[in-house]
Amino acid sequence: MRTVNHLWEQFISMENFQIAARKAIKSKKSKKAVAKFLKNKDVLLEKLRRDIMNGSFQTSPYVVKTIYEPKQRQIYVLPLYPDHILHHALINVLGPIWLKLFKRDSFACIPGRGLHAASTYAMQLVRRNKYVLQCDIRKFYPSIRHDVMKRILRRKISDRRILRILDNVVDSCGGDKNVPIGNLTSQWFGNVFLNQLDHFVKEKLQWHEYIRYCDDFCLFGNDKSELKRAFVKIQDFVHDELQLEFSKSVIYPVWRGFDFIGYRHFRGFVLLRKNTARRIKKNVLNMAKYLDLGEHSVGQLAAYHGWAKWANTYRYKRNIQRDVGQFGGKAAGFIKEKFFFDN
Question: What's the angle, vertex CA 247, arms to CA 243 and CA 252, rounded to 5?
Fold first, then answer.
């Protein structure tokens, strides 16, 4: 693979950091942090660039939070300044380079290839095949070895100064494993890491009926024995080359419903996964019951509406509408009108 060098001037330019700051501000929820940064934006950006150029930049300490939905995970939080801005500045330069490496079968954290694009492609695969081999990596992000991550990054990037910053980010949470969930860079690192798997499946195994969403990946086919043989080779590659383990691997007929990214895909329709449907209903009813219409809740409702709209959920939505109605009041009316029950 041909490596890319001479990225430093593009990365360190004030123009790049101004763009990075705008993107970081747009994605930051804390208005207080944004206001504090904007008071001295140009001075702070110049200081950040100077710290990077003289080699004194270090990633800030993480604030670690535990979330429990949809499953228990640790989220690592960094401040807007300097870290989020630095991460955006890196991705402004490296993102377009990495995008060219990704296979079309890979989804999640890729512009234009999100949840619904993955679901659409999954339906095509379900219609064309009888069986699916579904695999999931055990604790993917916490299990990524730093030395393997650095080695993979160097397969495409050869600018030493850029690599020094990338190494700082990779090593930032200590130990020899873990790419922290919560960083913009981690989303990209995860895709770059498992891009090795995508190329192995598509080029070495010559397997074309394939899809990956983050660490959940699947091969489709019409011969169970061929899928079993492919699994053995993939398992060896994941263990030997990526030093990861599977948490799940199963082969089953697609007529049972392909359970993927929160949906069950059948040949003629799509349903919400049962635990997804239960979680959405529980949270929406709590919002109506406790009149919770803060900014975070409104964002959640918009996301839930998107989930439900993409599947066959007419009866499901009507059942929630009935249950929300029992609470009455402004919150229940707002939920019914704006998010869940439009035609």
Answer: 125
| Residue 82: cis peptide before it, omega within 30 degrees of 0 | yes
CA–CA distance, 122 with 218 (Å, rounded to integer): 9
Dihedral angle sign, alpha carbons of residues 274, 275, 276, 277: positive
Angle between helices 14-27 and 41-53 (to 10 degrees): 120
**Long-range contacts of range 30-35, CB-CB < 8 Å, 24 or more positions apart?**
30/80, 33/79, 33/80, 33/81, 34/80
Give the residue from 326, 321, 314, 319 showing the smallest Cα distance to 337: 321
Q: Measured between alpha carbons, how far is 90 from 110 in angstroms, rounded to an integer? A: 16
111 by Cβ neighbours in 10 Å (0-12 / 13-18 / 19+) ranks as: exposed
Q: Are 341 and 317 in contact (CB under 8 A)?
A: yes
Residue 70, preceding peptide bond in cis (omega within 30° of 0): yes
**Whole-number Å distance between alpha carbons of 104 and 108:** 11
With beta carbons less than 8 A apart as the criterion, state whether 320 and 289 touch.
no
Q: What share of residues in the chain are helix, strand, coil (percent, to 5)?
A: 55, 15, 30
Of 69, 101, 124, 324, residue with least CA distance to 203: 101
Mean pLDDT for the chain overall: 91
Q: What tens digit of pLDDT does each residue of 269-318 get? A: 999 999 889 988 888 888 777 765 666 677 777 778 878 888 998 888 88
d(CA 28, CA 82): 13
List the one residue out of 130, 122, 125 whose CA is nearest residue 264. Answer: 122
How far, CA to CA in Å, does 270 sit from each of 65, 116, 259, 304, 314?
33, 11, 10, 16, 12
